[in-house]
Amino acid sequence: MSEPSLAIRKFSDLANPTRFLALVAIVWPWLAGLTLCLFAVGLYLAFTTVGDYQQGETVRIMYVHVPAAWLAMMCYTVMALSALGTLVWRHPLADVSAKAAAPIGACFTLVALITGSLWGKPMWGTWWVWDARLTSVFVLFLMYLGMIALNRAMDDPTRAAKVSAVLILVGFVNIPIIKFSVEWWNTLHQPASVIRLDGPTISAEFLRPLLVMAIAFTLLFFTLHILAMRNEILRRRIAVLRRHAARAAGREGDAA
Amino acid sequence: MIALLARDLKLSVRAGGGALIGVLFFMTVVAVIPFGVGPDLNLLARIGPAILWIGALLASLLGLDRLFQAEREDGSLDLLLMQETPLVLTVFVKCIAHWLATGLPLVIAAPLLGLFMNMDETAIAATTLTLLAGTPAITFIGAAGAAIAVALPRGGLLVSILVLPLAIPVLIFGVSAVYAAIQEPAPFLPPFLILVALNLLFAVIGPVAAAAALRLSSD
Amino acid sequence: MRLVAEGLSATRGEDLIFQDISFEIAGGEALVVKGPNGSGKSTLLRVLAGLLPAESGTAKLLAAPHPVERLGEACHYLGHRNAMKRELTVDENLAFWKDFFGDFPGDAGVDVDEAVESVGLGGIAHLPFGYLSAGQQRRMAMAKLLVAWRPVWILDEPTAALDVAAETMFAGLVMAHLGRGGIAIAATHQPLGLDGVKELRMTGFAGVAETVW
Question: The ABC transporter domain covers which part of the protein (chain C) (predicted)?
Answer without folding.
Answer: 3-210
